[in-house]
Amino acid sequence: PPVDADAAHRQEAPPGNADGPDSATGSHAARRASPARVAKPRVLVPVFPGTNCEFDTARAFERAGAVVEEVVFRNRTPEQAADSVVALAEALDRVQMLCLAGGFSAGDEPDGSGKYIAAAFRASRLSDAVMDLIERRDGLVLGICNGFQALVRLGLVPYGEIRSREPGDPILTRNAVGRHVSQMVRTRVVSTLSPWFALAETRRSYAVPVSHGEGRFMCSEETLQSLRGNGQIAAQYVDYGGVCATEMPWNPNGSVDAVEALSSPDGRVLGKMAHNERVRPGLYRNFPETGDMGIFESGTRYFA
């Protein structure tokens, strides 16, 4: 049965969790500003075959005050693919943020969603550039929908590094209902760990659109307990009452623990299924709880 989300996260809530005592001073509390300050933060939005949310994502970052750089990953020949890896790596050296936008990379084949993007980022030059952004330059990484799937396959969530997958690691697989879902959902921020959620309000629901065929979050029980304890479960699907949802339509894909968003241990890498980039003034007027959680503004302000 559904459980009280507040109660679930109130029990021995870890530092950095929105429901925990004195979360701002805990050992896992998020850093809200980077020491690497820049006048105009820049974000790289790669465009892979099948990506279809790059324009919405770029506009969302531009509205937040960031400068967007898009690089199209060309793959008609092996030479083009190799050149695209170099172009992406060079672009990563110029930016403070990386955002993997939503879509259906390579038609979500072969063998599942996000695999094509993950394969590209495992190229040594590109993976080195990503880790340099994260480890040396205090960069931020965001993945939405297809981008979230790629981050999970790479290990960037939940581990904060590109690594090989292990048994029990998180995965985003086919929706429990067995088909694509496209609807509005309610999601609630339950951890303040991630800088991407610096401007989000906890204890309130946000109505946000989803559109995916493989968004069901699954992992081992041991891994789930670790993610809870670290405050890495960033947002959950909830019902009208703000209660953690286990069934449709509130939980659109059947995710374990109603996980909608997940972060790395320090919060600087965030993956989420709901399309916050599609929320803007004038849309969804029949959903009074609609909101973008301030994700793009939070990422930009981290450096500005």
Structure description:
The chain has 304 residues and is of the alpha/beta class. Helix content is 26%, strand content 19%. It is built from nine helices and eleven strands. Strands 2-1-3-4-11-10-9-6-7 form a nine-stranded mixed sheet, with helices on both faces. Strands 5-8 form a two-stranded antiparallel ribbon. α3 runs parallel beside α5 and α4 crosses α6. The longest helix has 15 residues. The chain is globular, with a radius of gyration of 18 Å. The relative contact order is 0.19. The N terminus is likely disordered.
Helix content: 25-40%
Distance between the termini: 44 Å
Q: Give the overall shape.
A: globular
Structural class: alpha/beta
Radius of gyration: 18 Å
Total DSSP helices: 9
Outline the low-pLDDT stretches.
Answer: 1-28
User: How would a crystallographer describe the biggest sheet?
Assistant: 9 strands, mixed
DSSP strand count: 11
In percent terms, what proportion of residues is strand? 15-25%
Strand arrangement, major sheet: 2-1-3-4-11-10-9-6-7
Q: What is the H/E string?
A: HEHEHEHHEHHEEEEHEEEH
**Mean pLDDT figure:** 87
Any key phrases for this structure?
9-stranded mixed β-sheet, 304 residues, alpha/beta, disordered N terminus, 9 helices, two-stranded antiparallel sheet, globular, 26% helix
Short recap of the structure:
With 304 residues, this protein is of the alpha/beta class.
Task: Show the helix and strand layout.
Blueprint: H1 5-10, E1 42-47, H2 54-63, E2 67-72, H3 78-92, E3 97-100, H4 115-121, H5 124-135, E4 140-144, H6 146-154, H7 156-159, E5 171-173, E6 181-189, E7 206-212, E8 216-218, H8 221-230, E9 233-237, E10 259-263, E11 269-272, H9 295-301
Parallel strand pairs: 1-2, 1-3, 3-4, 4-11
Antiparallel strand pairs: 5-8, 6-7, 6-9, 9-10, 10-11
Helix pairs in contact: 3-5, 4-6
